[in-house]
Amino acid sequence: MYEPYPTPEISLEHKRYRYSSLWDYAKQDLRILLFFITIASLIGLGIGHFWICIAIAFAVFMVMQLRALYLVNDWIANRPYDVPPNLNGIWGALLFNIYRSQRQERVVQAEMVGLIDRAQSSLVALAEAVILTDELHQIEWWNPAAEKLLGVQELDRGRNILGILRQPAFVEYFNNMEQQPDGIKLKSSIHEDRYVQIKLTRFGLESRLVVAYDVTRVHNLEQMRKDFVDNISHELRTPLTVLSGYLETFTDQEDFNPRWKRPFEQMQAQTRRMNALVNDLLLLSRLENDKQLAKNQIVDMPSLMNQLFDDAQAYNSEYGHILNLDIDSHCDLLGSDMELASAFGNLITNAIKYTPKGGVITIGWHDDQEHGYFTVQDNGIGIDPKHLPRLTERFYRVDSARSRQTGGTGLGLAIVKHVLMQHGAHLEVESQINQGSCFKAVFPKERLCQAEA
Ligand code: ADP
């Protein structure tokens, strides 16, 4: 008889046993055959029909083997998960090996199922909404938070995710995930006053994992900050206008005492600075609140470049730089001329301000069919590369004292960034300390249009 079926742990010992055992099992078959032949030859010699008895012995052995084969086939075909029939010889060995590997497989399967169960139950417990979509973007699985936050229901199973999260911003993000690596913020479609941050991750071929969480509190705080800055800027405007009006009236008086000249000049310079700050804050807050893409006005680039160049010449009078204008494109831009003029103007005044007297500044516009490039190149003080990632943050200055001295508000590049964002463009900065900087606004080809001849 065979030993009871061993447990399916995989170990070297078991493996050795498995492979060496086949001969042992075959020996059992041979022993039975030998036993039959011996009995048959004794009977055959006794009754005088030796070969007939031998043939009968072989026939009986064959019948036994065929029966075993039938039982093996029956087990594999009909009851593969039951304990196999108890057989001797190589058929028994075969059954033992099949049953053993089956059990090992089941253990691995059970482990996998356990793992999936654990992963699933942790996803279920998450406060973040999680949705899994298949290659066809159909919803496969979601957790309870997705029901609360995104309104997914049982009848949405198998539906296209874009049929459920239909906001144009999400559709745009879904189709161009790479452009927004941090995900997007959306107004919740089921709760009027709530906001969710959604992040997509691609896996497999085209399957996606959607993770969303509630950012209403952060959004409200951010909105409070924006409103506060907006209100205070508006409130400051009137007193500033009154102040600068009186300062001008005083200095224009014929009997104005020259002793007061310097303090009054300083007061005027400071009110101008505050005015610039308030104007920049208001512009920035307008740009931030207006998340729409800039309108598609055709901006005549040669004319805008010439106007910027003239303004730069005027501003340059006290710096004495050499200014160059380099236009090498027949394309115009689609966008808002006021906003673009303001952004480009900021880049130009920065180049003038941050270049020691007598520098060379080149303002350029060119394209390579794929992109349009507005560039401002200077040979000024340059910027240490460690500052570059934070340069477009509000009030971020490389050298605060110098920036104040030059009358900067610290908001110029933040405004540039927002204007460019609304035009689907971005800012690239190359700079070397004491060598100069190149600020490049890169526009996508959708924003370019061939200028009329
Ligand atoms: P600011 O009003 O202070 O000029 P910006 O936002 O326009 O503020 O610029 C942020 C900082 O970036 C500046 O304070 C300055 O240190 C640096 N910067 C901007 N443009 C240049 C430039 N062309 N060369 C050197 N530094 C620059």
UniProtKB/TrEMBL annotation:
GO CC terms: plasma membrane
Name of protein: Phosphate regulon sensor protein PhoR
Annotated transmembrane regions: 32-61
Keywords carried by this UniProt record: ATP-binding, Cell membrane, Kinase, Membrane, Nucleotide-binding, Phosphate transport, Phosphoprotein, Transferase, Transmembrane, Transmembrane helix, Transport, Two-component regulatory system
A single MF term (Gene Ontology): ATP binding
Histidine kinase domain residues: 231-447
A Pfam family it matches: PhoR
Organism: Acinetobacter brisouii CIP 110357
Biological classification of the source: Bacteria, Pseudomonadati, Pseudomonadota, Gammaproteobacteria, Moraxellales
Domain of life the protein comes from: Bacteria
BP-aspect Gene Ontology terms: cellular response to phosphate starvation; phosphate ion transport
Broadest EC class assigned to this enzyme: transferase
Location(s), subcellular: Cell membrane
NCBIfam families from the UniProt entry: phoR_proteo (TIGR02966)
